[in-house]
């Protein structure tokens, strides 16, 4: 950590990451607390009641950085097509007027600007192209945010409105927005959303919780850990132990005995093992940024900063082949292709 970075993030007393799901049994959180000479990392634990999560993490004497593995932001094409202005936090605050927003559509006929999530179940012949058309979008690619698109380092992620299959994030987004973000934003004051409300360093101040989107697949790359196989298999998770211990050492992280045991045991043999791994990767990803090993980079595109959001620590830019018609905001050029220095 450089002296400058240490000073910028000196107020951070707690770093956590929640691996989110619509199912409570799949929600796990890992928490690291600052010590005199580094961080102490507890073993992954169930999130428990989402209504009390922020209160349990809040530190009036320090800043809290909370990563979450679900989309924070929505596609610009959706906002442009339906004339939705403001910022993503403004949008969330306005959802009280649209109680059906969180009802996933069972058919294409149910889809509309204020019921964009689809499908509730598998139907023969359904496609993302049909989903996009029902939303008034040009094609399936328009369902993606910039940060969802593939980069030179990883393939594309799932679009945030899609709610079916293993490669989907829509259900987690719906659950997290409804159960955590909306109540916190209505309460006001404690929660801040990165990058929509400012740069990370400016948002991290005493008594505040900053919520940032993270992505375990990105975290693996940021931490220089290679997964050979599937995180769903305990045998493959076991091969990550050395890499995880190395990352902790570089970050000044001392794992509590239960965390050390979880790493050595491949995070357990049950189905939640992959979720415990993901929240561990997420908290190390966030600590990596706090340590100054990765920048809290956000592209200059105003759509990203106000509406679509970005993944913490990601510097790889989206591949824009076939995306020349992306909407622009206030006459600003979309997605300037420049990486951080």
Summary keywords:
single chain; 341 residues; alpha/beta; Nucleotidyltransferase, domain 5; eight-stranded mixed sheet; 13 helices; disordered C terminus
TL;DR of this structure?
This protein has 341 residues and is an alpha/beta fold. 32% of the residues lie in helices and 11% in strands.
CATH uppermost class of the domain at 3-72 and 178-290:
Alpha Beta
Multimer state: single chain
User: Would you tell me which CATH topology of the domain at 3-72 and 178-290 applies?
Assistant: Nucleotidyltransferase, domain 5
Strand residue percentage: 5-15%
Tally of helical runs? 13
Q: What order do the helices and strands follow?
A: HEEEEHEHHHHEHEHHHEHHH
What class, by secondary structure content?
A: alpha/beta
Shape: globular
Can you summarize the main beta sheet? 8 strands, mixed
- Output the radius of gyration: 19 Å
What is the average per-residue confidence, as pLDDT, rounded to a whole number? 90
Uncertain segments: 329-341
- What's the β-strand tally? 8
Q: What does this entry look like structurally?
A:
By secondary structure, the protein is an alpha/beta fold. It has a domain at 3-72 and 178-290: Nucleotidyltransferase, domain 5, CATH 3.30.420. The chain has 13 helices and 8 strands. Strands 1, 2, 3, 4, 5, 6, 7 and 8 form an 8-stranded mixed β-sheet that branches. It starts with a helix and ends in a 33-residue tail after the last helix. Mean pLDDT is 90; it is low at 329-341.
